[in-house]
């Protein structure tokens, strides 16, 4: 039987996310990102389309590598201004019942104690529909404005992240035992202190001696998302991620990435299929291939290559503004440029990738590609991506929002359903059930968070030991 | 003409807020604090009652001074478990149009750059209805679980807070000039980089060289709340606070506090009336005085003195568990105990305040008092509080939620309206307009945030200087 295709909508609380300039298109409502109506409308649309989740990207900085300036991205609203993605989730949750919400948080600048509470709170309010996209921030501007003179080194960021997650798991899974909360009005007991435990965490980066602030939420641990592409990032994903995001320019190349990720999962005692891997794609669909191609050309007129080069600067650290638009980048013998260029040259070795060509590509698809055509063409192509790429799902970015999502729900969802490749109803009510099936609300037993389930039972609790002595 | 009485509802994302034990009452829905329905129901009720704001308290720790243990407060759910108050605001905003939301944030554990974004995001999503209750955390358990071995000293916490606010004001008021955002689709300009400025803040505690992440929100600076009672806290309030919360046991004693606060405001170049001062009160109202007294006695049966002593421990640092319930506290010659006791002995010098009496008082009114009676009696008493206490409004705590608020809206609001002491319709759409009148959406000119309005015009911007060089 063919694998069901999972589906995330990729959005961000900003005007220009992955398709800089497209906010100017008459169909775009992306500049309404700062209104609740935009978010509740999109959430309801996605739930109508039976999406697994809305995935919210985030940066706590801005892109100022290109031309050594933030001016290009400000002019075009490319990921700046950018709002806090946590803030609109409860409004979206109030108008939906099944849709999940994956929220990006750059833990480099957070403390685990309050962040664990933030996610647990949302898991309560959404009744188990929250995911946590673990990011170790890549923007120098983010580091600087958080009072650091420069970024923490890449590998140390991951070392901090490992311990950070460990603290969160202890708080979410271990501190409050199942059954600790009684809500017993007649007996006068809200919770039994004997079943609430201090986690007594004393690590290299964090000291969290106390008890968790929140009672157990439906999922306890939110669904863990991750997108790291480096080898250290892959190891982190293999251990922690339940959903992983990858870029994608050609399915066969993506296959190498997904295979390596699943190897990592196995190396950490998990099954290959425990990782749900999503490739970022844009879809432009209409009644016929011709109409879709016409739509693509129409979109392209609004694309902004300056904003695209702004994104490239932030993602790669490479300022392509130092070159002429017609310079062929393969001829530039700088390691960071070649490293950035690899996916492009591998995908299309015969093409001469100039600055202009790279900018054009990014402006219409980020580090992915647009899939363009009739519902049948698009469905064929998505099936090919899933099967050849060894993927579980698509992380659907937009050119115009919510227009791109509307088109997908109208044209592509019915076609995939006809082919038996897409759900016709939600299986459960929590985000984890959306991905792992009905009943799987908590982390799988093989997940590192699971080891803290009941781990403190019988150990010192809030009841039998004065809290202060445990510190 | 008599002064209009302003009204905040005092709530917290927890089960037992100011009336420990009352969650067990059949009328209480407080244990639904972790559902969206509870919050949207309460918000709609408050807006029907024309409240100025819902004010959300918060702690990022728990009360473990009493009996050197968190067990008493866990058993009774006294402010633990506690959810993140930011998380349910957008759902409440989606079902209301005027009600403001004051959110407590303990800035001791925050960085100004992301916190400024969080408030700005909510100010956008609520269309200008957000307030920021600036707190410098008082719980040792909060400090410990944020990786600090002990709390930062009281005075240094306020010094940090001063600089913290300064950074926020620069980001909210100064970084993006009025008119910076064009949203010009035809011209291809979302924002003009020449009107967006790095704030170049380099202080003792924070370095924030860059530009703000958010475009200007309706209020720009959220309404600033504060509740500090110490002399350092009063100075902070005199400078920064637009709304101040005070405790209240007797109106004439509260008058001394409000006079000193308005003196502080004057000392900082503001008018006495620029401070809107709210006293925390509980109200128990019914058709007649007798019925209200009956209701009070019914509530009292559910009150929990153990939870109350837990709160006392956290607020005062004094463990009253070291004494016998019948010990008269005046006879205990410990400074911290006498300091805590002062409001009680001053209000009622003839009473012998035993541990039991203090616990009983706190369990039914926190550091305030319940006002009990018919709508007429309650309105008389509230008018007396406002006029004798030199107050602007009431910070209405609940015994049962939303029951206490329902009773107030049903019985007291019409009575106050009849007397011309309460609004009959909202004046504007933003929180600041609720308190300062229609049109006053931005901070008053005398507020310290106002000094950064347009302060960077003509100075280096994102357009004319490479971003990195400004650092």
From TrEMBL, chains A, B:
Cited SUPFAM superfamilies: Bacterial luciferase-like
A Pfam family recorded for this sequence: Bac_luciferase
Keywords: Flavoprotein, FMN, Monooxygenase, Oxidoreductase
Domain Luciferase-like: 30-388
InterPro entries reported in the protein's UniProt record: Diverse_substr_monoxygenases, Luciferase-like_dom, Luciferase-like_sf, NTA_MOA
NCBIfam families xrefs: FMN_nitrolo
Family: Belongs to the NtaA/SnaA/DszA monooxygenase family.
Protein name: N5,N10-methylene tetrahydromethanopterin reductase
Protein species of origin: Kocuria flava
Gene (UniProt): y4fC
